[in-house]
Each structure stands twice: as structure tokens, then as C-alpha cells.
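Notebook entry, cofactor series.
This is the third protein in the set we're modelling with a bound small molecule. For this one the ligand is S-adenosylmethionine. I'm keeping the input format identical across the series so the outputs can be compared line by line later. Sequence and SMILES below, as received.
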Amino acid sequence: MGFHQLLAEGESVPLEGFDFSWFAERASEERPPWGYASLLARRAGEVGTMCDLETGGGEVLAWSLGEAGHRPETVAATEGHAPNAAVAGRRLAPLGVGLVRAADGDLPFKGDAFELVSSRHPVEVAWEEVARVLRPGGRFLSQMVGAASNRELYEFLMGPQQPGDARSPERAVAEARRCGLEVVDLRQATLEVRFYDVGAVVHFLSKVPWTVPGFTVEGYLDRLAELHDHIARNGRFVSHSTRFLLEATK
Ligand SMILES: C[S@@+](CC[C@H](N)C(=O)[O-])C[C@H]1O[C@@H](n2cnc3c(N)ncnc32)[C@H](O)[C@@H]1O
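Returned structure with ligand:
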């Protein structure tokens, strides 16, 4: 497939949900060694009430509930992005999960409501709210995107960027403590990401739009052409994502 065909294909893939199976053979990303979904299944099996924040299409929550030996009596989930909420609603309603269309910020739950609050790759954690809705002794389990994730990719497109600490594990730990949570586990991983064609890069940047804010094919046409040439010469474009696992108790 030629450059413009790959761009058009990358732009035409539907964006809702967080099922990444479209990328098979065209891009790959190593998995963190701790196995978040299995860990969530184990934690879910230990509680009677839980809430998954920013559940996306509900894919991970649904899988984890299926694996949990014992299903919590009350399971809630939040999703604020309408296309994802529609996907999550279809997936989670048959499992008895109450989906709330909440955007970032205030959580529409009473205090001390949940024994477990989980969130994978939250865009933003409302730490005070997490602490408020957790029952004393309750647990927050989250896998987060770390600082400078996919730096090679976004710097290839945007040029050198100042590293910020907004997504650093140190900042997350400080926020958790500020809100009265005790951090009981923190693990970090750097994972290899490979893109085998520029269409996969276009789809990735459209699906995860905060990697290159304001990304459009037209706006980055020259850089995408460079990237296409790079892949033609090297067989792939390699980048590295960063992830950390944080567990905290109230
Ligand atoms: C990165 S997603 C993670 C979803 C899920 N927890 C998972 O791990 O698959 C986190 C949040 O990003 C938001 N989001 C996803 N796509 C978006 C888009 N195109 N524009 C704005 N927000 C988006 C959604 O609200 C979603 O809950």
C-alpha cells in the first residue's frame, strides 16, 4: 500500500472503545510484567463493592469480572466520553454493572461507598474524590501512563519537548498521600512499541489523541512522510511507552 492509501486507511478506522485488535501485525506494544487485568480480577474477588473509573469501553473491567472467583455485589463504572460510554453500556449492562456518564472531576457517589476503586490509564485522577468514595480500609488500584510515554513518537512529529512531571509516579504518590491514602505498591515499566506502517501510526494518534495534541493528518503530512520513509528503510518505527502500577489504601 502506498503512503496516501495508508494515511486514508489509518484515518478511517473507528475510534470508540479500547479494543486494540485492529493493530495486530501492524503495531505491537509489550505488556507490563505485573498483569493488571489479572490483578484487578484478584482484587475484585476480595470485595463486595467496587467502581472502575474511566472504564473506556469496559473491556478490562468485563474481563476481570469474568475471571474473579467471586463477583462483587455492587459494581459501578464511570465513562465521560460519549462514544466510549455507548460501547461500555452495551458490554457492562448484561453484567449488572451500573455505568455512570461522569466526566473527570466530581464523582456522583456518596462517601465511603466502595471497597475497591480501579482505573487503568486514567487521563486525570481526581485524587480527593477517589479518597472520598473509598471506604476506610478500601483500596485504589491503578495502572497509569507514565511521563514521556512514547516520547520518540511524539518528538518525531513535534520536535523536542520539555519533560513535565504531570504524569510522573512521584507526583501520583505525592497526590495520593496528600489525600490521606497510603501507597502500598508502586511498580514501573518501560515497554517497547513498534509501528510497522504509517497507517497504524495515524490510527494510534487518533485513538490516543493526547499523545500529539491536536493531531491531524494534514497538519503533520511532512513528518508522516518522513516517518513512512523511516519505516521503509528500517522495517519499523520503535518507540517506548511508560507505565506504572500504583496501589494505595485508605
Ligand atoms: C485512555 S482511556 C482508558 C480506558 C480504559 N480504562 C482502558 O484502560 O481501556 C481513559 C479515558 O480517556 C477518555 N477518552 C478516550 N478517548 C477519548 C477521546 N477521543 N477524546 C476525549 N477523551 C477520550 C475517555 O473518557 C476514557 O475513559
